[in-house]
Each structure stands twice: as C-alpha cells, then as structure tokens.
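2024-03-11 09:14:02 DEBUG pipeline.ingest accepted 1 chain
2024-03-11 09:14:02 DEBUG pipeline.ingest length=371
2024-03-11 09:14:03 DEBUG pipeline.predict start
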Amino acid sequence: MKAELLFDCPFPFSSQILASTRSLLRPSSSMAMSSSFCPRMPISPLLRPSPFPRSCSFFSTAISSQLSDATPKGGGFAGRVGFLGLGIMGSPMALNLIKAGCDVTVWNRTKSKCDHLIDLGAKYEPSPAEVASSCNVTFAMLADPDSAIDVACGTNGAAKGMGPGKGYVDVSTVDGATSKMISQHIRDTGAAFLEAPVSGSKKPAEDAQLIFLAAGDASLYETAAPLLDIMGKSRFYLGDVGNGAAMKLVVNMIMGSMMASFSEGLLLSEKVGLDPNVLIEVVSQGAISAPMYSVKGPSMVKATYPAAFPLKHQQKDLRLALGLAESVSQPIPIAAVANELYKVAKSRGLSDQDFSAVIEALRTNLQNLEQ
C-alpha cells in the first residue's frame, strides 16, 4: 500500500496550513428493520423490461425514489435473496429482509455471525459462490475494496455462482475502479450488476432508514427496488457503474470533514470556559444544525465512542475520496487535513471506535502542548 501523504494544496496560503497542521499532528512520545411482506415464490429470472436506459451520463438527472409512510415495502419481488457480509451494517440489513418474509441465504467469514439469522429462518451456505448459485439476487456488504473483490471474484467468490438471470448488488463502500472490476467479473458470467453503497450507519440500518446510491444495470435496479425499499427510506439511480461509488465517497468526505471541524469546536468551547453541551444545543437550533451533531455530541463530551461507523472506515473513505479527487485534479485541502487527523486517531488505537473519536487526535495534541 502506498504511503498516505498530506494533500499538496496549490493555494497561496497552503504553506501556512500545512506547517501548522504538521505541527499539530506530530506524534507525541507517548504514542507508542420492517414489517412488510416479501413473498416466497419459485425462482424466476431477472428478465423484466426496464423503463431506464442501460447507461446515462453522471451529470444527467438522477432517478430517485423516496418512500412515504404509506408506501408498502417489499411487494413485487419474487425469488431468493443472498446476503454476504454480516458486520455492523450487513447484519441488520439482512435481518430486515428476513422480518419482511424474504427467503434469505447468508454467508460470513465468521460463521457464528450468521447464527442469529439462521435461528430466525435464514438459510446458510459455506461460500459466496454457493450463496449466489442458490439465489436470484445476492447482496454484498463488505468492509473495504480488498474484501469486496475477494468475496466477489476470489476462489469460491460469488462470480463462480453467477449466471444469466441472476443479479449481484454490492452495497459496500469502495472506489469506482474496484466497483468496475467487480462489475466486469459479474457481467462476464451473463449476470447483472448493480453498485448501491448506502448513506447511513448502524441505527439507520437497524431502522430501515438507509439511502441507496445505485448505479449499473437498470433492469436489476428495477428488480431489486422492492428489496432496497425494505432496507431503506430512499434510493437514487445514478447511471453507469462508478457513479454510485463516487457519490458515496463525496458524501463521506463531507461527513468526515464536518466531524473534524465539530471536534475542534467542542474543544475550543471547553478551552475558553464554555459548556460544550450548550454549544451542541445552540448548533442544533441554527442553520448549521445536523442530526450527526446532536447524536454524536453528548457522547463526545463524555469521551465515549460506541461504534456506529468505525473510525477506520471513515479514514478509508477519506483516503478513497482523495484518490478520486486526484484522478480529476480537484484540490480538496480540507478533506486532506481531516484525513491526517483520522490517521493520527488510528495510530492511537481508536480504529474500532466510532469515527467521532477523531476528537481524541486533537485532544491529545492539545494536552501535549500544555505540558
């Protein structure tokens, strides 16, 4: 893996920013689900006609669907559903499908993570290939690009079980190049491919409130739509493979930068003698209000970080966003600085904590400066 370097900002003030940032980030010596019905019916191939073109420009108007409270979820899908990857996100997503009455087959590298779903009626297969072979549509929710490629394309990967009439929906957060590689392997078998990374973390996954950012085969998007509606509150069709991945990276780049800035604000309020809890309340009532601040802020003040979105995944997404920006020569200096903070937090053993633990990268440096 290539070393991650602070983004070189071309602006006149870049040298001051980089100098102050490097000083701040210098390591210290001490651093050593849904109640709807999804009918169980015989297998039928994914051959329904689609009203959407197979591809469209990224800059064309996205097709979106947002569910109202009265919108029925899950009606219209006939077949078996596979789910690969049962971590913080995958497990509640698969559980919502099971609760909706879908015929679900699961797989995870650690089989014990499948047990609670098997107890609720899910089937189990010992490899991604066998899951894909037995299902009409197979979802994958993996932690990073390497895992996504291995599960889809590796030995006993899902591609080995794919074929005409089947569909593969990758809801992992990966870069566009990875998504296109997986798409090619899946499509080479005659199957359809859809990338559909999600916006949302553990609680939205549990509450079926995810947002799906889909791109790829429009016919599969239409077929999988009832399943997406079981697991989420809205979905967008963005055209060609890679557009969904790009949209997700931009969203998570913004989120990571927002959390880093919020962390600075909390620490500054404490430093000048203000109550950070009052700051959270003030922010929540103003134009810059965001649910993330109200949800994460109180725990951050208490220095507790129960993982809803692990910090290591936020840093991974910032790294991928920097690569995306580099590919089109777009400077993103704020995100680059934020990425450095998450890397410092990782180096201090906070990888598996919630991404709001990035505040500790700033808090520790502040304490060191005061000594």
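2024-03-11 09:14:41 DEBUG pipeline.report Residues 1-37, 39-61, 68-72 have pLDDT under 50 and may be disordered.
2024-03-11 09:14:41 DEBUG pipeline.predict end
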